[in-house]
Every structure is written in structure tokens, then in C-alpha cells.
Design goal:
globular, single chain, 12% strand, alpha/beta, Phosphoglycerate mutase-like protein AT74H, His_Pase_superF_clade-1, 12 helices, 289 residues, 6 strands, disordered N terminus, six-stranded mixed sheet
Length: 289
Amino acid sequence: MQENNHSNHQSGKKKVLPKRIILVRHGESEGNLDTSAYSKIPDYKISLTEEGRAQARLAGSHLRELISGHGSCPDWRVYFYVSPYERTRSTLREIGKSFSKKRVIGVREECRIREQDFGNFQVQERMKAIKETREKFGRFFYRFPEGESAADVFDRVSSFLESLWRDIDLNRLHKDPCQDLNLIIISHGLASRVFLMKWFKWTVDQFELLNNPENCEFRVMELGQGGDYSLAINHTDEEMLEWGLSSDMIQDQKWRITGNKADWNDHCTWYLRSFFDYELDSENDVESN
């Protein structure tokens, strides 16, 4: 009986969504500065440069300004997810200097948002040839020898997203409904791109056009009036074009600010047309020949 009451209590709770989900790429690393570092140091142990730490501190300051509404939104909290790599954990440490203890609900190390696996130690000349082959084959499906493809990363990031929604549904983040919750995910360039691809239902062709975020650059997904998240609330058309979004993708982001999620298929006729040869404007059945 006690268990049933608990279940009823849980089911009666209204799900409160985070106000923002923010994706942050790590700061400049020793590997970004000198790719030969990967031939001597395991990828997960590559550390930030001094410039990378400074980038992270600056990003933390900008994130706090954004989340606090430049001081106009007093009741907000943050929850961090971080890749287990040294450079992402160090980025979190520097970003965290902008947030007092009372503002941080929690943090979780999450292996599924780690960097794409390129193999154990990377020989510089060999990696150059491999990456040239990847450009010919396609960045999404090409699998590095002894490593992963972007499609592999997509699968584990998709699994992380399912866990993220369970955390939100069951209020495992201990969110107070009176507070604005902001999820900050500190990860890597590719992991951030496939996260957005999965979230916004972007196709493989659309993914291939996306550019990697710069070090400590962040993408802000904010909850719109219609109950969906949008990049267009905090980012300009020019920014999204620089990221590789097409005009259709940008218009979709603008629609998501106020659009009803249930109407997405009707709105995104361009998406349906990318899969079919015929126009879907007519309600009449297609006659068979």
C-alpha cells in the first residue's frame, strides 16, 4: 500500500523541464596546440593549455551572466554533466569558479559523452592519411581503425539522452519547481554535434555540413513557449549559419520558440520532402498504376 501511494504521488507530480540545456566544448588542449601529443599521451589524459584554462574561466563568467539574466533572475540553479577526460574535467573546474556552492545542484561524470575514440596512441602521419580518407568516405559513418565512427558516438549519446530524460522525469536532479534549472554538459566537439543531431532529428546529410565548435564555445538550447527547445532564442542567424545549419534548419529553430511539438511534422514539410520524391501537399491517395 505504501509503495502504491508513493507511485501515485510520483505520477501526480508535474514534470518541470530545465529552462536551458547548454553544450560546452572543452578549452584549448595540448592536443589542439600540437597533434603530436597524441602519440605520447593517451587521449583521455591530454590536459588544457594555460590559454584553455583562461578560455574556460571566461566561459564560466559568460554562462553565469546568461543564466542569471545579467542579475535579473535571482532564483536559478545549475547541474553539470562532464566527460571523464582530463581536459573536460579541467574545463569544468575553471567554469565552476563562476558559480557558488548554493547555485550548483550537482555534477555527474558521464562516460557516454566522452570524445570519439580514435584508437589508443595516434601516429601523426598515419592519422593525417586516415582523416583524409574519412573526408572522402563521409565523417558520420567512417570508423577509425581500432576506434569509433561518429555513428558509434551517436548511439552512446542517444543512450545518455534517454538517461537524461529519466533523471528529469523522476526529478533525480532534486529540482525545486520555484527555481530555473540549467543543465550544462561539458564535452567534446563531435559529441556536442551528435547530441544536437539526435535532439533536433537532423539527418546524416545535415550532420555532414556541421562545423566543430571552437574551444569553450557553447550552444544554448532554451525552452520555448510551446514546450520545445530552440537554439534561436540565444543565437543569431549568422551564428547558426557559421555552425553549418541550412536556412531550413534555422527556420525550424525559430519555429520551435513558439511552435507546438505535436505540430512539428506538419510544420517541417521540408524534412518530409527529403525522404520522398513526390509532393505531400495533397490529401488524396496516390493512385497505383
